[in-house]
């Protein structure tokens, strides 16, 4: 801290030396050491909850900085220990280190994902390289790594008990992958690359968010033809929220774009909405992401080259279920031809409908959803809007709770408003307990609605995870969606796809809530495995027990007719060409980007030419085009890992058949117990492949996936 501040100079005196802004920052830094609520131990009920009501943007910088300082001090205590390294004096204190920083990052994450603002984005931009530098100070701490390495090598000669051994293996592997064994010069360059990447990731995601906020289309009353009443009311509310009362807003998010393209009869408007959405980050302006993508790819490649890998994908996949890019690509290319063949059939069906109506058009990407819906009605007599009348958000939430009760023995009870602080008035909280014992398991927060400053999509997160080492405290989990907030008094009606996504993300929350592990590191996920549990939970939406109790008409409360249910099930493989192809195109491109020399990549050209080589249908685009592919370029969680959804889907389809074949079907107690015991509770305490084999009795097979999608099952190789 500035020496003159230590001597007690006033803020006013400092202004003349360093300017008011810098002086104010010093004051905030000082505050962070005393009464900063964002660094404080969580208080209140449930053994402490986040002080979301105390959040202030101007506290974030001092909070994160102080948290990083305290975490590094924890590490210094470990490395200052002169005793021979052991699990107890090295790994245990590592697991306990940085608790204040963990709490600080909870608030940082909320600002980043749920309530971002221009002020926060400036803070984020400034902190990103500092956070990267902090991470490097730990991952490249030579004394720390040598202690970890000693514990690891000793455990290879004298193995520890399984949970301890798994922790040691995971920590050692992570440090080795992060360059801990490099020489000093390469370590320095490695850290520089990470610092530069962190800034690029932040800029990439903020550019996408800017394009989502800047490209809003306002409609007049005569431009609403074909749109469902529920959408019109929500669009009116969205316009009013943006100061355009009397108009109707089509926002640049999937939750707004998708239904508009499905139902609007205004083809020119569909094209405009489509282009807005798929051009995010690709508008040749200050928010364009193409140059950022090039820089990211080059830096990632340089970094793994320091570690001796041929490409980024090779480095990233070594500790995933796929093990290497070849295995991941092999799975995708087994499915790709069948998906393309199905798209041809789908486009042919749509073109026939368009021709029969005298539309005089050739199907384009902005027509796909619109005419697919017409085909759905014609082939299956299934009206998506009719289905939505039975998919009301409150009922679906109760369906989640019922499913969790049947499979996990969990009970959900609403927490009285005001008992637990929330970061936005839309957020509701439930208590989660064991149905038999009444023992508290944790809390579940739900933030359901889209808003300015909230990133698009749906996700789950955890504010506090479970582990025996940290005192078995209640889990604090959350789900976050982007349903369009209805006009006052109106219901929230969602599509079948959105209902499945709601179940999917709740699967992640159940994974957090059901954890039964000893050490925090075992809460880490294996990317091509963690999606499996959540994808599996989607299957319960279409079970009889959920249908008969919770899929009820929002006005009459009548159960969805069996005839309509049968149409839904019959149409379950409908449009799988589109769904599989748009996803796989993104996943394959992700892998291609990270197995190709980045010097040969110009993103726009590379995307176009690679998709052409793959025979990508011109009527479909990637689900996430390169300039807004946040999974891959706003961080590293899904980089070369987007294929993981398909890998997980193989497990999902295979596991679903285990339930379907059981005497009690999807509510079979024996299979449910194995599901929790082997696939949810252990988190990463057990090798995923081993865990799945314990559940299923064998490895997963691709056949069930192909059956699920209505694709031909590949012939078995003769051995």
UniProtKB/TrEMBL annotation:
Sequence ranges assigned to domain Peptidase M3A/M3B catalytic in this UniProt record: 260-709
Cofactor note: Binds 1 zinc ion.
Source domain of life: Bacteria
InterPro entries given in the database record: M3A_DCP, MetalloPept_cat_dom_sf, Neurolysin/TOP_dom2, Neurolysin/TOP_N, OpdA_N, Pept_M3A_M3B, Pept_M3A_M3B_dom
Domain Oligopeptidase A N-terminal: 82-186
Keywords from the UniProt entry: Hydrolase, Metal-binding, Metalloprotease, Protease, Signal, Zinc
Reactions performed catalytically: Hydrolysis of oligopeptides, with broad specificity. Gly or Ala commonly occur as P1 or P1' residues, but more distant residues are also important, as is shown by the fact that Z-Gly-Pro-Gly-|-Gly-Pro-Ala is cleaved, but not Z-(Gly)(5)
Any one GO MF annotation of this record: hydrolase activity
Enzyme Commission code(s) on record: 3.4.24.70
Names of required cofactors: Zn(2+)
CDD domains: M3A_DCP
Signal peptide: 1-23
Top class in the EC scheme: hydrolase
Similarity comment: family membership: Belongs to the peptidase M3 family.
Protein name per Swiss-Prot or TrEMBL: oligopeptidase A
